[in-house]
Design a protein that fits this description.
heterodimer; A: about 180 residues; alpha+beta; Alpha-Beta Plaits; 2 domains; four-stranded antiparallel β-sheet; 6 helices; 8 strands; about 35% helix; B: about 70 residues; four-stranded mixed β-sheet; 2 helices; 4 strands
């Protein structure tokens, strides 16, 4: 019970690599579902990009405190979304990669999460471009977001209906954090 | 005044940023943008509309597009 409390509730300090594991799922829908369940149960987890060496599964993984592997697996099995693989992050080659790629164009900043990109004009915080994906709702998301400031724009996770909307939501959230630092 | 932006070979968001740079002075009444993907065409169109410009003509030449954008 002590260990359970240790990793639940408030975010703990980032664990060292040897104390972390990654959950690999069949597809991104399962990652999204698992993330919701684990966060709702107060687990400190992060959605990351998979290590290049892991070929199976989708383009997102969940990083979790390895010591809680059994509890987390039990919960996910109970919810009907067990991962296809659980990998300890002990090997440097198995370290998950940062999900976000950030490119500074000078007056503009672009953040990419998985297959989606959002670009903002730094001085005004107006969204000037949304691209990537290939899902049917990307044109809609771009239409709603482009031309609005980050403060005015709705979160793509709230208005999107596909995995592209989810990825764009991750990029949007990261951009919000960057904007708060300017 | 009219200028031409050759954004062929650039991936998004660069064609959009090239367009934004071109309209910064506010002096250009007509901008010709050359792009070579559907995504770039759509993204530049959206950026133009959000900046009170209008795409008045799109001419397809093979895989490339010649977009004529004018101030509203």
């Amino acid at each position: 019970m002590f260990k359970l409390k240790l990793f639940k509730g408030k975010k703990q300090q980032r664990l060292s690599r040897s104390e972390l594991g990654i959950l690999v799922f069949e597809n991104t829908s399962e990652v999204i579902a698992a993330q919701k369940i684990l966060l709702a149960n107060n687990w400190d987890i992060r959605v990351m990009g998979p290590p290049p060496e892991i070929q199976s599964g989708c383009d997102l993984v969940i990083e979790f405190p390895l010591i809680q592997e059994l509890n987390i697996l039990r919960l996910l099995e109970k919810e009907g979304i067990p991962p296809i693989e659980t990998v300890p992050v002990t090997d440097p080659l198995l370290q998950p990669v940062d999900l976000f790629q950030i490119k500074d164009f000078g007056e503009f900043l672009m953040i990419r999460a998985a297959n989606m990109k959002i670009t903002v004009e730094k001085s005004t915080r107006i969204i000037v471009n949304v691209s990537g994906g290939g899902c049917p709702d990307v044109p809609y998301l771009a239409f709603i977001l482009v031309g609005k400031t980050m403060a005015q724009a709705p979160n793509p996770m709230d208005i999107g209906h596909t995995l592209c909307g989810y990825a764009l939501g991750l990029a949007f959230k990261e951009m919000q954090q960057k904007c708060s630092q300017w | 005044m009219s200028i031409t932006i050759d954004a062929r070979g650039f991936s998004c968001p660069q064609p959009v940023l090239m367009f934004m740079e071109a309209i910064k002075s506010g002096n250009e009444s007509q901008i010709i943008v050359l792009v070579d993907t559907d995504a770039s065409k759509e993204n530049v169109s959206r950026a133009a509309e959000s900046k009170q410009y209008k795409v008045s003509d799109i001419l397809q030449q093979g895989d490339e597009y010649r977009m004529t954008i004018v101030k509203n």
